[in-house]
Amino acid sequence: LTSSQTSPGLHVVHIAAEMAPVAKVGGLGDVVAGLGKALQKKGHLVEIVIPKYDCMQYDFVRDLRALDVVLESYFDGRLFKSKVWVGTVEGLPVYFIEPLHPDRFFWRGQFYGERDDFKRFSFFSRAALELLLQSGKKPDIIHCHDWQTAFVAPLYWDLYAPKGLNSARICFTCHNFEYQGTAPASELGSCGLDVNQLNRPDRMQDNSSHDRINAVKGAVVFSNIVTTVSPTYAQEVRTAEGGHGLHSTLNFHSKKFIGILNGIDADAWNPATDVHLKVQYNANDLQGKAENKEDIRRNLGLSSADVRRPLVGCITRLVPQKGVHLIRHAIYRTLELGGQFVLLGSSPVHHIQREFEGIANHFENHDHIRLILKYDDSLSHSIFAASDMFIIPSIFEPCGLTQMIAMRYGSIPIVRKTGGLNDSVFDVDDDTIPVQFRNGYSFLSADERGVNGALERAFDLYTRKPDSWQQLVEKVMNMDFSWDSSASQYEELYSKSVARARAAARTQ
Ligand code: ADP
Question: Rg of the chain's alpha carbons, rounded to an integer?
Fold first, then answer.
């Protein structure tokens, strides 16, 4: 296969189900690319392994080519071949694994949501490790993400370290504990893991069902470093209310568990250079922002009669976690308050998609409300740029990226105080927070009153004190939410873990 170049820094391999912009469903894709790029900038050798999906955005891959070897990896009692492709995405070397399995695991026209997801991704996790072994790579860190590649942790220690792929420490990041990858225990055997050894309460057994195993729990138990995507969420998931059944496991392993706030990709999300925008702009020249607002109103058929009418944006997966009933309420309340509302979202949940289609149709030709129910990256940039306010009323939110992107584009976030939203948005009226950090509006109670209170305070400042509002816009645009500081925290965790392993090896 290909050999790794030598580098003075660490050699980090991310094994993941998503990477932006080629294969992105949500924040996970952004994190793999953003953290990868930031670590590469700091001098580390970063490589990514993802599945080769038929539905990827191939335009974003440079120099894609198939390697002239065929990978063979174990599954269901025999060896299956995979083709391995390599290319460059955003300057990062990426390996794409294409299983030649008769079930055509990644030829489904969608990333997730297939009835055999557990099989598809346990196959991929094993094939990715096989790739590292057969190519003779000696990574310092193997970083896996979410349940889809959580299998990497037990596979590494039980099967691959004994085979000689033993240079690495395993880091696991859980981007959302709602999704844990549980299945009947017997299904774990397909990828070669020993069900009898692992279906135990202190290993991979699901905490609420003794005949099921839990991939995320397995990664928590078997990884050297376990992170999640914000400090507040790390606290929340250690409680019975917020832990989705894993709080006791996380408390037991608390020494290796930490929350690190995600950053955003400051190059991809930069209003001064963003090619998706009608006009580029920056904090010192907000005229361009007004022109983007005018442009989107024209394109979406909203009224432009009143330049000052505030525009509220919302870009989200429409799932219960995001507070869909509060989003719906915010649309109606915005209208009552004299604003405009643009929602860009889509839902994997049938009844939610149908409900929002109903609302979209109701407002089809309305002057002030528009719902666009699809995934559209380019349009998302235009909405961030055009909106004055951005609403995120999540019930829980591991980190959330849209509040940070919104601020970079001068749209003031209105958020529920939970998870990463609590670590990045500080209420302008909260006297307990130093003034320089205050950057938006937040509310605690997950109900209509909570939304109303924050929305009304935002409208009040916007309409009654335009100068203060403009100062706030300039201030949030200048805040730093780039990956720099978060990547440094990962760098430190990696380095400490590697140093500990080396010290232990020396004393053996
Ligand atoms: P999650 O990972 O839970 O979906 P995040 O806030 O962490 O939420 O990340 C969501 C990312 O996906 C953001 O970059 C956001 O702009 C993007 N996004 C969500 N829905 C859409 C959509 N319908 N069209 C375009 N981009 C979207």
Answer: 23
Tell me the CA–centroid distance for residue 38 and ligand 1, in Å: 20
For residue 471, give the amino acid letter.
Q
- Report yes or no for ipTM above 0.95: yes
In the chain, domain spans: 11-263+485-507, 287-480
**pLDDT tens string 43-91:** 999 999 999 999 999 999 999 999 999 999 999 999 999 999 999 999 9
Domains 11-263+485-507 and 287-480 in one fold: yes
pLDDT of residue 268: 87
274: which 2 tokens? 């963003």
d(CA 117, CA 98): 15
The number of the ligand 1 atom at minimal distance from the alpha carbon of 380 is: 25
Residue 429 CA to ligand 1 center (angstroms) comes to 28
Which parts of the chain sit beneath pLDDT 70?
1-7
CATH number of the 11-263+485-507 domain: 3.40.50.2000
Calculate the alpha carbon distances from 497 to 16, 168, 227, 347, 362 in Å. Answer: 21, 10, 13, 39, 55
CA of 504 relative to ligand 1 center, distance in Å: 42
CATH 3.40.50.261 matches 287-480: no
Give SS3 for 120: helix
Amino acid at 15: I
